[in-house]
Each structure stands twice: as C-alpha cells, then as structure tokens.
Amino acid sequence: MERKIIGFHRDQKGDWVADLACGHGQHVRHNPPFENRPWVVTEDGRASKLGVTLNCVRCDALELPDDFKSYKRTAVFQAESVPVGLTSSHATKPGVWAKIQVLAGQLMYVVTEPINQAFLLDSEHAGVIAPEVVHYVQPEGAVQFYVEFYRKPEA
Ligand SMILES: [Zn+2]
What we know:
Layout: E1 2-10, E2 16-20, E3 25-27, H1 43-48, E4 53-55, H2 57-60, E5 69-73, E6 77-78, H3 84-87, E7 97-113, E8 117-121, E9 127-129, E10 134-151
Antiparallel strand pairs: 1-2, 1-4, 2-3, 5-10, 6-10, 7-8, 7-9, 7-10
C-alpha cells in the first residue's frame, strides 16, 4: 500500500533509505544506470520528496516494524463486552500498529481497505493491524482477546 515519506537515513553501507510513515524503510538508491534517483544525493532533493508516497509491500504483508515497541494494551474483552468501536469499521492512527491477541475461542478479523482480507484468529494466530488500515472484528461465539498497540520508541 502507498505510504508517505517522512524522512531519510543512510544504512551501514551509506545507501539512502526513505523512512515511511508506517515505520518501514525503503531503499532509494542512486546507482546509475540501474537506479536513477539523482535527487537523493542532495539535501534539497530529499526535502522535495517528503510527503511523496511509495508502495510498501511490508505493509501489504502486515509486517510489524522490527524496532516498534508495545506501549499500551486494552482490557481483556469477551464476546458480550467487545466495544462497539471495535466491531464497526475503524483504523489506527498514522504510525500506530496493533496486535489482536486471542486468549480463548475465535475472533474474525476483517480488513476492508485498502485490501480486502479476513483472518480467523485464535490463541495460536494473532492478528496484525497496520496503521490507518480500515478494519473491524467479529466474535465467533465465546471469545477472550485483547489488543496491544505498538509504535516507534522515542529517540
Ligand atoms: Zn510499511
């Protein structure tokens, strides 16, 4: 899915990496004639690309960024106590990832935008929620689960 560039850094080899709003990085090398991005070698060039989007396949794969840390966890919900906000379409804020951890029973986790996907979660299969992706959950009979939120640690 498309993610905005919010900054840049160099990897250990000195190659430029775009920092995306989702928390993932993506190489933006200038290596002519194979990869032609002369803008990346100047500060003005990089600044001109802030806010531009790149397609992030790691978001499509619902890969929680490695360096993200848990900072909040909900109470344990049961089928009868699931907040209405979770069973109707909603999304996390930019940069906020979440994991749905089922303790007992089964929970349907449905993503509606930008890609339609449905996952039947249980105690062995957690659900990963990517930032800003529209989704909802639906209890499948008796269930116990909580949601844990992740973000980039403060520098
Ligand atoms: Zn991403």
